[in-house]
Structures are given as structure tokens and as C-alpha cells.
Amino acid sequence: MIIGPKHKPGCKCISGPVISARPTRNQRAQRTVRKFPSFPKRIHSNAPHHLVRIEVISLFACGAITIADACSILKRGRTQIYRYLALYRRGALEEMVGDGRVGRANNAHPAHLRNTVLQIIRAEYGDYGPTLAAEVLAEQHGIELSAETVRQWMLADGLWLANQPKRLKVHRPRTRKRHFGELIQIDGSRHAWLEDRAGVSVLMVLVDDATSRIQYMRMFESESWRAYAEVTKGYILAHGRPVRIFTDKHSSVRLKDGESDYTASLSRLGIAHSHANSAPSKGRVERMNRTLQDRLVKYLRRRNASSIEEANLMLSEFVNSYNSKFAVPAVDQSDMHRPLDDQWNLDEVFCRVSKRVLSRNHTFSFEAQTYVVLGLNPANRPARTLRIEQRLDGSMAVFCGNAKVAFRQPN
């Protein structure tokens, strides 16, 4: 049908322009040609997926892909895709890649607070980690901030470097014991606990496996049998006898042949003793030592401790504060510690045993000293084996068989 501006019914001639109701092939082809957008080559973002987001929305805006395709590629819902489209049409590309988070947040901390906190950290806590710095800011300066906020500020200011070490070997975590007192891990950590105020010392730490509580802690000059015996004695007097004690294979507590003095002392108290074959097997106390090398060193610095004796007087306060923050409840609330019977004298139980041969004139040598055994019949001159016990209180006892004998140094 042809329609003209002056058409009358029954008239065969038509004057004026003629318009076809159906478009021609060229007109249809011109309408279907899409003008693809020019994609931005650079935006203020280092993430590749931000540029992909702009490209996909550009294709969707010109009709090259459907809404379903855009949702599938960007892993977003239809509402989010249309929000991106509105931002794209307004030219707000920075808002688009930032999910609308531009400018300063309404709940952001004021700039002067950030500057004050960073100034305090630089001046006093330059070697503190973000978590410890946040705690000290709250305790010492009354500034309450989350550890993540302090971490982000320290990262931006260059006071902290993100540490992501590569694990060469993955160890399957062991399930915690169910009861408090079922397993106690002991380890000694040699470190400059007092920094340059004193020499290097050893911190003996006892950790409960079920709760991660620091049960007992004391500082010594070296990791020796006496250090293990004294911290075990202090632990038993404070909490009772645990079911099992877990140590490494230090020469002070383990012998390649036979039973060590430390194991024998625990056996007399009815306490099982196990040895760790690797550091990860007693990871609870190993990780505790790593934490203490950060937190305890700075605590003793703030308290100005300058000797092992002064540090030992301050450890109980630190332990109480640490346990209140990081200890976890046991799965079973029952306590597996057993009371200490009055018949046990721990100074006698924890002893080092040595063997000596009694000479014909009833003398024996021990630690470059000669001693005379009293009360034996001089007529009996057979060789006898003596058992010498060096006790924790510094005293010495000598036994011939099961009988305790008197001794003295010759004049």
C-alpha cells in the first residue's frame, strides 16, 4: 500500500513524496550495525578484574551480550549489573571498579587520631606488631582501636611489613586433649629476654594442652636438669600432679640408654613422661615461645627489668594477663590433676643419681672431693656400690643398698 499526502480514494495519480511502510534492505542493515565502545586503557586500579568489569558492562550497554551473559561472566545478580550499567552511562568508572566506595567513609577515624597513633608507635613501639600495639595503646594511652585498623595504618606508613612465609611442610594438627591437666607441654627457650640489660637466658614454659593456658613460667641461666626439676616442682605445688608431661629430647631429660633422672622422678610421682620426635609435635608450647619472644620482651622492657631475679617476680602478673586474653575452655571441664600426698618431699623426689664404688678403706670420690662413709664395719672390706643422690635443695644423700649411710669429708 502506498500512501501520499494528497491521496484520495479512487484517484490513480499521486503527487508529493512517497514513503514506504516497510524499510529497505539497506535501511535494515544500517539499523543493525552496532557501534562498539572504546574500552578504557587505564583506570586507577591494579586489579585486572576491574578492567574486565568495565569491558563486560560496555558490551552489555551496546547490546553485544545479554543480561544473562553479563551475570554469568561477572558472577553478579541482575540488580548489580544494572547498577553497574547506570554508573557506566554516567561515566563513573572509578565508582564502578570500587563498588561505589569512593571518598571518605562516614565512620572513618579522624586524621588527627591516625597521626597521633602513628607518632606514638614510631616513638615508643617501633618494633611492636599491630596486635600488641593495639593492646598497649588501649592500656597505656587509652586509645581504643582494633588490631586491623592499627595494622592498616602501620602498613600504609611503612611501620609494618606483611609477612607471609611459605610452609615447606604441612603437619596435620593434633586434636587438643579433652581435660585440663591431661597433658602438660614443657620447653625451654633461649633468648635475649632482657635485651641488652642482661645476658641471654632461658625461659622455661609449661602450657596445658587442653586450654593453652600458661601454667607456670620461670627464667634460668641455662636449660639444665635443675631448671626442669624446679619448674616441675613449682607446677605440682601450684596445681597438683598432671597425667602426662611432654618434653623434647633434651639431654637433661632423656638418655639414649636407660631412664633419665627426670623421668625416674616423674615415675615416683605417678606421672607419665613422653618425648616429642619433632618440634611440630609439641607445637602448642613452641608457638607460645614465639609469642612470648615478642610480648614478654616488650613487657619486661616497659617494667624495666634488668636481671633474672627481677623478671621472675614479674612473670606471674604477665601470665594472669595473658591467660585472661588467650586461654580457651577445655572440652571437658573436669580437672585431671591429682593432689600431692604429704609423704612426698619434692626436694627428695627430684634428685640426680650417681653410682660410686666404695673403696677398701670405706671412702669414695665425688665431684673432685673424697668422702668417708661412717657406720660400716671395718672388718668387712668387700667392694660395695653406693648410690648418691643430689637433691634439689642442694643436699646430698648416700645409700648402700637400701640403707642410708652417714658420710663426711676427711680432716
Describe the secondary-structure layout.
Elements: H1 25-32, H2 48-61, H3 67-74, H4 78-90, H5 93-97, H6 111-124, H7 130-141, H8 147-157, E1 179-180, E2 184-191, E3 201-208, E4 214-220, H9 225-239, E5 244-247, H10 261-268, E6 272-275, H11 283-302, H12 308-326, E7 332-335, H13 346-349, E8 351-358, E9 363-366, E10 369-374, E11 384-391, E12 396-400, E13 403-408
Parallel strand pairs: 1-7, 2-5, 5-6
Antiparallel strand pairs: 2-3, 3-4, 8-11, 9-10, 10-13, 11-12, 12-13
- Number of discrete domains: 4
Which structural class fits the helix and strand makeup? alpha+beta
At CATH's second level, what is the architecture of the largest domain? 2-Layer Sandwich
Distance between the termini: 145 Å
Order of helices and strands: HHHHHHHHEEEEHEHEHHEHEEEEEE
Number of DSSP E strands:
13
Low-confidence segments, ≥5 residues, pLDDT <50? Answer: 1-7, 13-20
User: Reading side by side through the largest sheet, how are the strands ordered?
Assistant: 8-11-12-13-10-9
The overall pLDDT, averaged over residues, is 82
| Main CATH class of the largest domain | Alpha Beta
Number of helices: 13
CATH topology of the largest domain: Nucleotidyltransferase, domain 5
Strand content: 15-25%
